[in-house]
Every structure is written in structure tokens, then in C-alpha cells.
Write a structure and sequence with these properties.
The protein is of the alpha/beta class and 326 residues long. The protein folds into two domains: 7-205, Spore Coat Polysaccharide Biosynthesis Protein SpsA, Chain A (Alpha-Beta Complex); 222-316, no CATH class. Helices cover 49% and strands 17% of the residues. The protein has helices at 18-30, 45-51, 67-81, 99-111, 131-140, 158-164, 175-185, 207-228, 237-260, 270-279, 289-316, and strands at residues 7-13, 34-38, 55-58, 87-92, 95-97, 115-124, 145-147, 154-157, 189-200. Strands 1, 2, 3, 4, 5, 6, 7, 8 and 9 form a nine-stranded mixed beta sheet that branches. Helix 2 (45-51) links the parallel strand 2 (34-38) and strand 3. Helix 9 (237-260) packs across helix 11.
């Protein structure tokens, strides 16, 4: 692919090792303008990134870290150094960019002036190594067409970033949908095109990793609903309520009723019924449908803990820290 001088790349990461090297090499294939933002790596990430030609920024870790803050620092430095850059490809350091997709995305931008964000499909590198990696691969496979939000990997217009002042630094999770919501309020559009975009390495092999990641999702739902839930769109209110009902209200109610009469414990059958209902969804591959459904149901308990943690920290005014699964 011919490098496009209007496109820059912002990579964020910490202790990604060889995954970061692959990420940078793939970024250098599409652009000479690559910024790497490091968030306190203890390995040689910064040194290796410099050797590979990146402009490196080391975040001040005295300030609470968020991916949103890292991305903001990156794109603003890129825009400052290269005023002619019109698009920024954001990518996480555990991903590798598939170069063919970039040309398709830029062609789409050329034909759609009102689009702020174009994304493709993030593909899991080792989806067969664990059910948790496979779950990520299913999650990445979002519908093609106009979308409400993108994930961490996407190409975004600099003018759109400037119009909304980028991500919110204080969002420790769910920062991309929150920013996309503000963009859409300004009549910008987000598109998911039919192209594989990046190869991701979740390296998620244990139940505890999956639980933390699901807990983070619940935290993100509650945070998004707290900030934008009163808007017409009711941002992530439904997702927050689902986590509260399925992960907390229903089991608590069943336990309380069973104290009156043990027969009420039979109400717990609602969970296997929900599992069965989900196994009938045909857009999930048949070979993994039963497992996927099981983790969707179980995940509501993890999301519930994330929602509770958010509100507990809001009530007690405690600092909100990133919930990391690896």
C-alpha cells in the first residue's frame, strides 16, 4: 500500500513486548507519522518504539491513567507536529493493522464528508486458544453499516476530534462510545465497513481475566448512563439496568422469597431458560453457541459488580482506577 501523508497513527500501550513491535511495524507500513504513547512500561517498549521510528510520549503516571487520556495526548501531538494530517488511525499496542483495510476506509471518507469515524472488524489472533479469546472474536464482529460507536481501533477525522475536543480523559472505560455519542450530536456519522481492520491478541486464558473484563463492561455501562443517561438516546441505561436486574435484583429477590417458602428457589430456572433462549440465536456459530450463551448469562453477575463499584466510588468520592484484565 502507498503511504498516505494525510494519515497518522497513534498507538497506546504498556508492557506489550513483541506485540507492540508487530503493531508498530504494521503502522509504519501505512504511515511515516506514528506516535507511540506509553503508560509506564517496565520493559523496553519506549526504546524499541524509538528505534522503529516512532515519536514517543511517556505519560506522567502521577496523573491517573486512562486510555482516553493516552489517545488524546497522542492525536494532539500528531496534529501539533503535522498540521496537514486529516485522519488519525488509533490502534492499541496489542493489535496489528491490516494494511489493505486502510485504503478502503480512506476511500469511504473521500465519498462521505459527514463521517467522523470509519472502523472495520477487529479479528482475534488466537481465537482457538481459549473460550475467552473466542468470546472476544465474536464480540468484535459488529454489524456492517452505520453504527453508534467504534472501539479502540478506528480511523477518525482530525476535524471531528477537534470539534468535540477528543475523548474524555476521566473515562476509565467506554470512552469511545461516549465520544462517538458527542460526535453524533453534532451530526457526524460513524460507519463500520466490511473489512478486517486489525488483528488483536487478547491473551485471555483464565476465568479471572474474563470476569475482570466483564466487570469493566458493567462499570462502563454505569459511567456512560450516569453522564448521558438523561439524554434522549438514554445512553447505556438499558445495559446498566440489565446488569442490575439479572446480576443483582433477580437473585436477591429469589433468595428473599425462598426465606418465606423454599419453593421460590425454583424461580432460579429463569437463568437456564434465558440461556436456552440465547442458544437459539442463529448469528452465533453453532459450535460455540451454548458456551457463548452461558457466558452472556454469567457475565451479568460480573457486570453487576462493575455497576456497583462505579456507584460506590461516586457515593464515597473515591478515585476511579482502571480495571485491567491483563
Amino acid at each position: 500500500m502507498t503511504k498516505n501523508s494525510l494519515l497518522g497513527v497513534v498507538i497506546i500501550g504498556r508492557n506489550e513486548g513483541e506485540r507492540l513491535i508487530k503493531c508498530i511495524q504494521s503502522a509504519r507500513e501505512i504511515s511515516d507519522l506514528v506516535v507511540y504513547v506509553d503508560s509506564g512500561s517496565a520493559d523496553t517498549s519506549v526504546e524499541r518504539a524509538r528505534e522503529l521510528g516512532c515519536l514517543c510520549i511517556e505519560l506522567d503516571m502521577a496523573v491517573p491513567f486512562t486510555a482516553a487520556r493516552a489517545r488524546n495526548v497522542g492525536w494532539r501531538k500528531l496534529a501539533e507536529k503535522h498540521a496537514d494530517v486529516q485522519f488519525v488511525h488509533f490502534v492499541d499496542g496489542d493489535c496489528e493493522i491490516i494494511s489493505d483495510w486502510v485504503e478502503q476506509a480512506l476511500q469511504f471518507f473521500a465519498q462521505h464528508d459527514n463521517h467522523a469515524v470509519v472502523c472495520g472488524r477487529r479479528v482475534e489472533r488466537y481465537s482457538d486458544r481459549s473460550i475467552y479469546n473466542r468470546l472476544c472474536d465474536i464480540e468484535w464482529n459488529t454489524p456492517v453499516g452505520e453504527a453508534k460507536a467504534c472501539g479502540g481501533d478506528a480511523i477518525i477525522r482530525v476535524s471531528a476530534l477537534q470539534a468535540v475536543n477528543g475523548y474524555r480523559d476521566d473515562f476509565i472505560a467506554g470512552e469511545e462510545p461516549e465520544m462517538c455519542l458527542r460526535m453524533r450530536k453534532q451530526s457526524w456519522k460513524i460507519e463500520r465497513i466490511d473489512a478486517d481492520m486489525t488483528i488483536h491478541d487478547a491473551a485471555m486464558t483464565t476465568f479471572s481475566q474474563w470476569w475482570k473484563r466483564s466487570k469493566r463492561a458493567g462499570f462502563a455501562f454505569a459511567l456512560g448512563a450516569y453522564v448521558h443517561g438523561a439524554d434522549t438516546e438514554r445512553h447505556w441505561v438499558k445495559e446498566t439496568l440489565k446488569a442490575l436486574v439479572w446480576g443483582g435484583v433477580l437473585p436477591f429477590t429469589i433468595l428473599m422469597l425462598s426465606a418465606i417458602n423454599a419453593w421460590f428457589l425454583l424461580l432460579i430456572v429463569i437463568y437456564p431458560v434465558q440461556w436456552y433462549r440465547l442458544t437459539r440465536l442463529t448469528y452465533i456459530d453453532a459450535d460455540v453457541r451454548a458456551q457463548w450463551s452461558f457466558f452472556i448469562v454469567l457475565g451479568k453477575f460480573a457486570e453487576f459488580t462493575g455497576v456497583c463499584e462505579f456507584y460506590w466510588k461516586k457515593i464515597t468520592k473515591r478515585r476511579m482506577h482502571l480495571i485491567e484484565y491483563k
